[in-house]
Amino acid sequence: MLWRSLLLAAGAAIAPGVDAATLRFSCSQLVVERLDPIVNPGANPSPHLHQIVGGNAFNQTMDPSVHDLPSTATCTTCTPSEDLSNYWTATLFFRARNGTFHRVNTFGNELGYTQANGGQTVYYLSNGKVTAFKPGFRMTVGDPTFRSAQELSAKYKFLDFTCLQTPMTRGGQTLDFPKQPCPAGIMVSIRFPTCWDGRNLDSPDHQSHVAYPNNQNQCPSSHPVAIPQVFYETYWDTRPFNNLAEWPVDGSQPFVWSFGDKTGYGIHGDYVFGWKGDALQRAMDQNCNSDLFVNQINCPTLEVQSLQQANQCVKKTSVSENIDGWMTALPGANPIT
Ligand SMILES: *[C@@H]1O[C@H](CO)[C@@H](O)[C@H](O)[C@H]1NC(C)=O
Ligand SMILES: *[C@@H]1O[C@H](CO)[C@@H](O)[C@H](O)[C@H]1NC(C)=O
């Protein structure tokens, strides 16, 4: 039932007998730093802070013509050890009543990955035959400049927040930050489009080479190639910040994205494909899946490492700035809007 609701939430209603993969796994934290090789390649620092998971070849340039993740990375924080991709999102901050900021940590998804050192859960979903990404492929979803539900829902689908009453809470998603304290933290879900133009590994806005399918799950003729649905689920540990006495006097919610968004509508995610060889294609072709409540990938074709091994892959930050403790401004001094 839970799987069904997750899949429906993902817009991927699975009909019996249809090829379908539901590969789900943990990617522990690799590094938290102000780099963004897709949107601000070469910039150190980039404008806002990110939490990054995946292979340790992540760096500030990642020029697709020279940067080959599977041959450059020596470890990955994801449990499929052939996945040297990088996945990242902005980070959350708590703004206390006195106006100072504190970074919010991620924590291991309580559905199977409590031993993960933070990071996020990654899914690759398919409904029918899909074509895996090509080396050098990258994309983003969401727009950090958005501050309204109208903007967000006109352009994107399936970017939302869940106020966790318990780790099991599903449903009740919102497009903006939850307005009340969430006893078990805040889950952020980011799902990418599932149709590709079949030609471009990237595009100037990092988005227009992919598109959403129509309501019958058919890709448009401009983007005819069905690709796996990449889906991030991040558990943010807002639990230390649930004391209403520290929330704003006017009763508004206190969380801000690292780019200064106090609404949540600027929710976005970044992806750089980096699986070894045809490992992802094999996993999709073989309809691989995962058990929902334990760290178990049902996919004999994939090499898998333990959460403990995944936790050992870490990258030292290459940006010199403090991101911990109470601060008078966000890293990058992004204004709150
Ligand atoms: C990033 O990695 C690539 C490929 O390994 C390397 O050529 C480049 O020098 C690195 N960039 C930085 C700034 O470390
Ligand atoms: C601001 O508020 C936080 C949370 O109550 C507190 O821990 C911190 O010490 C305060 N900082 C200042 C400068 O008052």
Automatic annotation (TrEMBL):
Keyword Signal recorded: yes
Organism: Monosporascus ibericus
Listed name of the protein: DUF1996 domain-containing protein
Classification via Pfam families: DUF1996
Keyword terms of this UniProt record: Signal
Signal sequence, start to end: 1-20
Record keyword rRNA-binding present: no
Superkingdom assignment: Eukaryota
Residue ranges of domain DUF1996 in the record: 36-275
